[in-house]
Design brief:
Homotetramer. The chain has two domains: 141 residues, Rossmann fold (3-Layer(aba) Sandwich); 163 residues, Alpha-Beta Complex (L-2-Hydroxyisocaproate Dehydrogenase, Chain A, domain 2), CATH 3.90.110. 43% of the residues lie in helices and 19% in strands. The chain is built from eleven helices and 14 strands. It has a six-stranded parallel sheet, sandwiched between helices. Strand 5, helix 4 and strand 6 form a beta-alpha-beta unit. Helix 3 packs parallel to helix 4 and helix 5 crosses helix 8. The two termini are 36 Å apart.
Length: 326
Amino acid sequence: MQQHIRRVAIIGTGLVGSSAAYSILNQGICDELIMVDINQERAIGESLDLSHCIDFTNSRTKVRAGTYQDLGDADIAVITAGPPPKPGQTRLDTLEIGAKIMNDMIPQIMASGFNGIFLIASNPVDIITYHVWKLSGLPRNRVIGTGTSLDSSRLKTYLSEILDVDPRSIYGYTMGEHGDSQFAAWSHISVGGKPLLQILEEQKRQLGDIDLDQIVEDVKKVGFEILKRKGTTYYGIGNAIAFITKSIFNDDHRIIALSCMLNGEYGETELCTGVPAILTREGIKEVVELRLTEEEQRKFRNSTAVLRNYMSSIGYDEKVLATVQA
């Protein structure tokens, strides 16, 4: 009996990549994990350490170190490689180095025969996702960034503490750049199906005045609060990667706030940014277009303008593109 082996490659075995691998392994999401890093010894060490977890998990996942040449039959290639922002920097300030890493990496991955789904977590994730799409030549539905999935989770966490409900009973998204220009689509956030804005109005006496703008600012900045205290963030994004990976393999048709290549949705083209999308075994099935308020539309346009400004700094080497897409 033939059985498809679910293979995931983690490219970049630093704290984010290893945390993602640990979450994937513990949840039994795939049959094989391939750990790839420019530092081969690091990749070997992580794969050995992870393989020693198997006796304590509910499923057997084979873990091994590999190279770009081993990715030809991988279903999902998770890219976490790239520099974290330094104190005082934004995620966008890491763009130049991140783009150069992709220029070197993506042609080698595509030369292996890879024809799966790219899942990008490297920052600035929206622009790097676009860059990988350009370099890979893959259809737009199969190049996906983690986008504002983690930001949306952080928003739900803050709201759950205010409302004293499980964050999984809160539905809604932050949208736009995974960075300082993101915004919360308050008009579409609900708790157990009831609009959040209605709850805040009805329970003003119990809850007091809730500063929604401050909540968004807290969501934007909390990653850097973590960075100041422990150097970088990795558990949250690691579990987000595992969650997205599982949703792909399970063909869940789950709606997640991801960095998607837009082709007319929200009036934008040639741009990746955080929007709710239906995720399936084939990647992005559909971008969900919310009917935003005028203020939310203004914030979305501002966010895309910020991204386009930084995107203009990337030069696409036509020789690289020709080599990859041949």
